[in-house]
Amino acid sequence: MNTFIRLIxxxxxxxxxxxxxxxxxxxxxxxxxIAEGESQHxxxxxxxxxxxxxxxxxxxxxxxxxxxxxxxxxxxxxxxxENCGMLVYINMADHKIEIVxxxxxxxKVAAEVWQAICNDMTQGFKQDAYLDSTLAALGKINxxxxxxxxxxxxxxxxxxxxxxxx
Length: 166
Hints:
This protein has helices at residues 3-12, 15-21, 24-38, 55-59, 64-74, 103-106, 111-126, 130-148, and strands spanning 44-50, 85-91, 96-101, 164-165. The protein is α/β, with parallel strands linked by helices.
């Protein structure tokens, strides 16, 4: 994509755009779904919504994937007991969703599976179905994680379940 066009998209996608797509009630439902899912498996899910990148990042041509990897590290998603942390990153201005998994999950589930979930979310977002698309994705994610990391009793919640709006 042309850097100038991308810059304009990031300038026009404000935090208000993020709040319209993901209002407080929507974030609460997503938080509940993450908590419900984590009660069925041992993995940890963190969802981060970023309406737009900082302009310096756009000018340096930082991709959504690179940003997701940086946030994965910044928020310590990699630092879970069984190396089974996962980030679902939503970049609204770029219309990109990235799933970044720690090595424990990466050994069990192919990247193509996560990409298919991202593609489904993107299609739903095009219809302004932010909540429904996110919940459908979390359903698929939780089913996969339950299959590969079934719950084995009580455990400590290692990452916040509340989605983070940057």
